[in-house]
Amino acid sequence: MYYILDRFGATNPCRWIDDYPYIDGVDWRSGARHAASIPNPLEVRLKPLNPDASDHGPELPEYFKGKIPLFRTDLVAAFKEAGVDNLDLYDVVITDPDNGSRHVNYKAVNIIGVISAADMEKSEAVVYANGPLIDVDFDSLTIDEKKTRGALFFRLAESTNAILVHEKLKHHLQSRGFNKLEFLNPKEVAL
């Protein structure tokens, strides 16, 4: 079984990234290694804390979901411990505009590899003119596990914004106390 990686928002309010840097020639969703040079460290900024937003709180999450996935270093270590070996990691400094603090315990994560694993006959989806790759809108996704060849962690070729996690990895992360990550059933999620 595979799950889509997300993070709890409404039940665990946390900080959000305000600004990601643009790097010419770099696509964090392509599944390919970056040919262009990545700044070291990569600098990102948090949104100012908004106490009136229900999904916004003072805590920094284990995983910042966005244009550039940012994982806390202990989460990266747990991925490696579980056998995930398809991550290119980049140093990050996250600046808090509210107090000027700089957080260096995160990595920008480039997930190497995309796998065409959607069972298009069993999924509910809108396929655009260019075919079922990169930007399919799924109302319900069924994974053909034969196509994954047991991969623990990858981007879905049909919708590269989806990061898939094998149930073995899910259980490992939960056993290590990462309880604010969300693992969504692909059949019950719209992408």
Short account of what is shown:
With 191 residues, the protein is mainly beta.
Helix content, binned percent: 10-25%
Structural class: mainly beta
First-residue to last-residue Cα separation: 18 Å
Number of helices: 3
Strand content: 25-35%
Rg for CA atoms: 17 Å
What is the molecular shape?
A: globular
Q: Quick check: average pLDDT?
A: 93
* Count of extended strands: 14
Give start-end ranges of low-pLDDT stretches: none
The largest pleated sheet is described as: 7 strands, mixed
Task: Please trace the helix and strand order, writing H or E for each element.
Answer: EEEEEHEEEEEEHEEHE
Number of domains: 1
Write the layout of secondary structure elements.
Layout: E1 2-7, E2 17-19, E3 42-46, E4 63-64, E5 70-72, H1 73-81, E6 87-95, E7 102-103, E8 106-111, E9 114-115, E10 124-126, E11 137-140, H2 145-148, E12 153-156, E13 159-166, H3 167-175, E14 181-184
Task: Describe the protein's architecture and organization.
- This protein has 191 residues and is mostly beta strands.
- It has one domain.
- Helix content is 12%, strand content 32%.
- It is built from three helices and 14 strands.
- It has helices spanning 73-81, 145-148, 167-175; strands at 2-7, 17-19, 42-46, 63-64, 70-72, 87-95, 102-103, 106-111, 114-115, 124-126, 137-140, 153-156, 159-166, 181-184.
- The strands form three sheets. Strands 2, 3, 4, 5, 6, 7 and 8 form a seven-stranded mixed sheet that branches. The protein has a five-stranded mixed sheet with strand order 9-12-13-1-14. Strands 10-11 form a two-stranded antiparallel sheet.
- A hairpin with a 5-residue loop joins β4 and β5 (70-72).
- The longest helix has 9 residues, at 73-81.
- The mean pLDDT is 93.
